[in-house]
Structure formats: structure tokens, C-alpha cells
Amino acid sequence: MREKRATRDRKALPIGLTGQKLMDMFDLLVAHFGPQAWWPAETDLEMMVGAVLTQNTNWKNVERAIANLKSKGLLTVNALCSMPAEALAQEIRPSGYYNIKAKRLMNLIQFIKGRYGEDLSGFSNDGTLKLREGLLSVNGVGPETADSILLYAARRPVFVIDAYTHRILNRHGMSEDQATYYELQELFMDHLPEDQELFSEFHALIVQAGKNYCKRKPLCLKCPLEKWETE
DNA sequence: CACCAGGCAAGTA
DNA sequence: TACTTGCATGGT
Prior knowledge:
Elements: H1 19-33, H2 44-53, H3 59-71, H4 77-82, H5 85-91, H6 98-116, H7 131-136, H8 143-153, H9 163-171, H10 181-191, H11 196-213
This protein binds a DNA duplex (13 and 12 nucleotides) through helix 2, helix 3, helix 6, helix 8 and helix 11.
């Protein structure tokens, strides 16, 4: 929560961004996109696999990779842990970065298996262990991947920040260009109720907004957040 | 053709 | 600490 706070104290935030303002943003997004019901995965294991495969990668390509694993019965803890990295790499090829992602996947699944066993028993209701630190210690799991897993697989109230979150807040003058991951995360978590469903839906909506409207400047006129700034 | 996608780690100065 | 680069496929 304050891992990156060393250099100089930049203003974590602008300009009177309140909880109400954030809820306004949420409401505008819901009104425009509707309920999202993320994460699109059938199991916690599938969710975690997707979290690694989607790193800097279009979700469509991740779906192809996951489909390969499913069709061959490889989407299990034991299969992913025991198969050769080269073979796994070939299966996940469509998701790009396949050599490095094969290793990252195996690192993560081995970590999870070591703590919770092959059926992941106790994973989603593990409130005692320092799960976040554990996830971050895995080579291949950074802040966003760890928080995604915490939010969508372990169902904890953690706000996930991604490239879209940075971009959208910047475009609307709500954060500074170089705000760090943790500054933005604090921003949301300090001003919103600690609610897993809210965080889960909010992040999903931000991704939708980012995909559709905030790719390049200037903002598209039909951006659902257009009136947000002046509200 | 260039550019992007639901990042992360390792290397450099 | 602050940048930069490698990783790699498939869509627009």
C-alpha cells in the first residue's frame, strides 16, 4: 500500500477527487455498458491462467490459448505443473510471448499448488496467509496480475489498476501522467467502500471504456465519461 | 505498412 | 532510482 513512495512526494492526486466523483464515474459507465460480470472464466485455475496469458496481450488471443489447453485436458494444476515448458509453450502460442509465459504459468501454478494443493482447496477463502506477498514473489506476477487474482479468483476487495485506468484518469484530468500503480490504487480504495463486487465491476467497466473510447487523444465524442468532468 | 493488446523482469547508467 | 529493452502473436 505504500511500496513506492520513496523519491519525491508527488501529489498523489489532483483536484478534489472524492468518493462521490468516483461513484459518478461508476454510474456513468454502468449506464452506458451495463453489467459486466467479470472475470470470464469457469474456474479459479482458469482465471489465474488467463491473468498471466493476458499480460500485454489481446484477450481474443488468450481465449485461443485457453481453448487449446481445455481441449487437451491440460487445464489442471497437475498437468500444468508437470508438462515440459516447451510443450506448454506450444499450446499457448496464440497468446504471444509464449516461451516466457510458459515459465510464468508454471511458476504461478507451482506456487499455488504448494500452498493449496492440486484442487486449490482453501484458496478462495484463505484470509490468514499473506497471499498478495506470496503472489508477488512469483517470477512473472507483478502488481496487476497479483491484484487481478486476488479480486477475481480469491474474491477479495482489491482494486485493480491497469493501463486503461491510468489513461482514462489522465485524459480526464483526474491524475498525473506519472502516477504510480499504488497511488491510483490508493485513490480508489481510500474513497470507495471496501466492496469486492463494486471493485470487480468497476475494473471491468474501465476496461470496456478504455477499449472503446480512450485509445488515442482527443477523446471520442461519444465517450460515456464526457460529462463526468463537468459534473 | 505501423501500431496496439486486460505486463513483467532484467539490464543499463 | 529512472529509463530502456526483450518477449511475440494476431487484429485493425
